[in-house]
């Protein structure tokens, strides 16, 4: 029997998922921006810490608040991959002091896997969820990060800086998308209340 929530609109507080995800992305972005240390070990520490926290928090929130099964399963899969990538990155810190390879590898693999999963999920959500466009954009941006890390020869400063730039972009994108979902969901209720008040008068 299909899950009854599959055909239901997303829960009223589902907008919290992209907002929290966006806010969490801006924290390491600020750390990178205001730090003079752009070494591979620093990059792995920031990326790993963020990935573990964001994977756990966003994955749990999505499972609780998102009604669509595709959205829930995508968030769960990406949460597991993100946490695992964060733990690997933290484990590689001591081996990254003399080169950028461990950092670029960790970020590229994470970005490729999660970006493709999210992009495909967003395409499947078109017409079913108001969040589909933002999911597609986030997936495409994350997959693009993977391509940049794989195709370009990056020094440590550039690689860590690119991660920071990505986190800023994804954070702003998700915050705008999340609040847009909230406001869009509130408009019909406001319009209905106004119409009801007009009829009574």
Number of H- or I-type helical stretches: 6
Distance between the termini: 47 Å
For the CA atoms, what is the radius of gyration? 19 Å
Main sheet specs: none
Fraction of residues in H or I helices: over 70%
What structural class results from the helix and strand content? mainly alpha
Low-confidence segments, ≥5 residues, pLDDT <50? 1-10, 189-196
> What is the β-strand count?
0
Anisotropy-based shape: elongated
Oligomer: single chain
Average of pLDDT: 86
Beta-strand percentage range: under 5%
Compact description:
The protein is 78% helix and 0% strand.
Overview of this protein structure:
The chain is mostly helical and 201 residues long. Helix content is 78%, strand content 0%. It has six helices and no strands.
Task: Indicate the topology.
Layout: H1 16-33, H2 40-65, H3 69-91, H4 101-125, H5 132-151, H6 156-200
């Amino acid at each position: 029997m299909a899950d009854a929530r599959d055909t239901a609109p997303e829960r009223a507080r589902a907008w919290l998922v992209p907002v929290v995800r966006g806010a969490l992305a801006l924290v390491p972005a600020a750390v990178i921006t205001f730090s003079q240390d752009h070494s591979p070990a620093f990059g792995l520490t920031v990326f790993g810490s963020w990935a573990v926290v964001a994977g756990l928090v966003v994955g749990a929130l999505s499972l609780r608040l998102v009604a669509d099964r595709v959205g829930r399963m995508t968030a769960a899969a990406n949460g597991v991959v993100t946490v695992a990538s964060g733990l690997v990155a933290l484990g590689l810190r001591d081996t990254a002091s003399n080169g950028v390879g461990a950092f670029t590898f960790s970020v590229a693999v994470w970005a490729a896997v999660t970006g493709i999963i999210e992009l495909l999920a967003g395409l499947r959500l078109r017409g079913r969820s108001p969040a589909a466009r933002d999911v597609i954009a986030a997936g495409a941006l994350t997959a693009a990060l993977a391509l940049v890390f794989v195709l370009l020869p990056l020094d440590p400063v550039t690689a860590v800086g690119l991660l920071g730039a990505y986190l800023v972009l994804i954070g702003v994108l998700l915050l705008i998308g999340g609040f847009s979902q909230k406001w869009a969901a509130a408009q019909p209720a406001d319009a209905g209340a106004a119409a009801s008040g007009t009829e009574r008068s």
